[in-house]
């Protein structure tokens, strides 16, 4: 089957392929490669411009189409469950090119719309441009007294006082608490050497702050990881029993700090 193609200028081989796909009204995901390749070669043979720089791009695509065409004509290997479609790479290139072509057309429309917009430059009449309002400082300061100045000062101070939150201002300074995880690990090990078996809940309840509780919990997990302690819970929701199995206190890197 042949198709009459108007010999118009295309931006490249992908542009020509999209034109042929649209002309034949075929699905881009299921390109009839034999038919499209024949029409593509017909266009190449009828090209008026034989410039090698331009023709080289079209010839490379022609070789690609012929390669795909030959693969499509080969009998399928029944031993393979699923063979890769030889058209897949070409379809992906066409879709990418089509997307960028659409974007370029959208940008071109915006450029045309912007060319129709005119902005008026700011202009000020000469009579107004040089106008400056004169302020009579003598009349303003004529009736100014010490009592009025004091009243103005009090109003300014009151505005500053009103900005202060009466509750939050009494909180004091909030500082970030820094806990040394290495020191906590050594402390837990010393506690374990002394008691050997102890309650996990009581160990946490003995910590003075929430951050100390968190770091103690992390410390027990770390000691479990290196095999220094074993935890046990007989029944659901029962207290967890911690058994210290080490004979000595293990050393850790002093740079381990949890903030």
From TrEMBL:
Keywords: Cell cycle, Cell division, Chromosome partition, Cytoplasm
One Gene Ontology term from the biological process aspect of the record: chromosome segregation
GO-annotated cellular components: cytoplasm
Subcellular location: Cytoplasm
Highest taxon in the source lineage: Bacteria
Cross-referenced Gene3D superfamilies: 6.10.250.2410, Structural maintenance of chromosome 1. Chain E (1.10.10.580)
Matches recorded under InterPro entries: ScpA (IPR003768), ScpA-like_C (IPR023093)
Signal peptide region: none
Function: Participates in chromosomal partition during cell division. May act via the formation of a condensin-like complex containing Smc and ScpB that pull DNA away from mid-cell into both cell halves.
PANTHER family reported in the protein's UniProt record: SEGREGATION AND CONDENSATION PROTEIN A (PTHR33969)
Family stated for the protein in its record: Belongs to the ScpA family.
Subunit record text: Component of a cohesin-like complex composed of ScpA, ScpB and the Smc homodimer, in which ScpA and ScpB bind to the head domain of Smc. The presence of the three proteins is required for the association of the complex with DNA.
Protein name as it appears in the record: Segregation and condensation protein A
Taxonomic lineage from the root: Bacteria, Bacillati, Bacillota, Clostridia, Lachnospirales
């Amino acid at each position: 089957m042949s198709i009459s193609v108007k010999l118009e200028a295309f931006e490249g081989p992908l542009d020509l392929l999209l034109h042929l796909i649209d002309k034949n009204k075929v699905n881009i995901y299921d390109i009839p490669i034999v038919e499209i390749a024949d029409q593509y070669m017909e266009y190449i043979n009828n090209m008026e411009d034989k410039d090698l720089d331009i023709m080289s791009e079209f010839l490379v695509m022609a070789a690609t189409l012929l390669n795909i065409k030959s693969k499509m004509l080969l009998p399928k290997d029944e031993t393979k469950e699923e063979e890769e479609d030889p058209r897949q790479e070409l379809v992906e290139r066409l879709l990418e090119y089509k997307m960028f072509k659409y974007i370029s057309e959208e940008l071109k429309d915006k450029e045309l719309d912007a060319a129709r917009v005119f902005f008026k430059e700011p202009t000020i009449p000469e009579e107004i441009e040089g106008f400056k309002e004169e302020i009579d400082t003598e009349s303003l300061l004529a009736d100014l007294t010490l009592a009025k100045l004091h009243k103005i000062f009090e109003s300014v101070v009151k505005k500053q006082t009103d900005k202060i939150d009466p509750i939050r201002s009494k909180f004091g300074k909030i500082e970030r608490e820094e806990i040394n995880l290495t020191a906590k690990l050594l402390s837990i090990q010393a506690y374990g050497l002394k008691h050997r078996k102890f309650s996990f809940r009581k160990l946490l309840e003995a910590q003075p702050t929430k951050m100390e509780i968190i770091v103690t919990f992390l410390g027990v997990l770390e000691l479990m990881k290196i095999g220094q302690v074993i935890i046990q819970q007989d029944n659901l929701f029962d207290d967890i029993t911690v058994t210290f199995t080490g004979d000595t206190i293990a050393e850790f890197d002093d740079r381990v700090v949890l903030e």
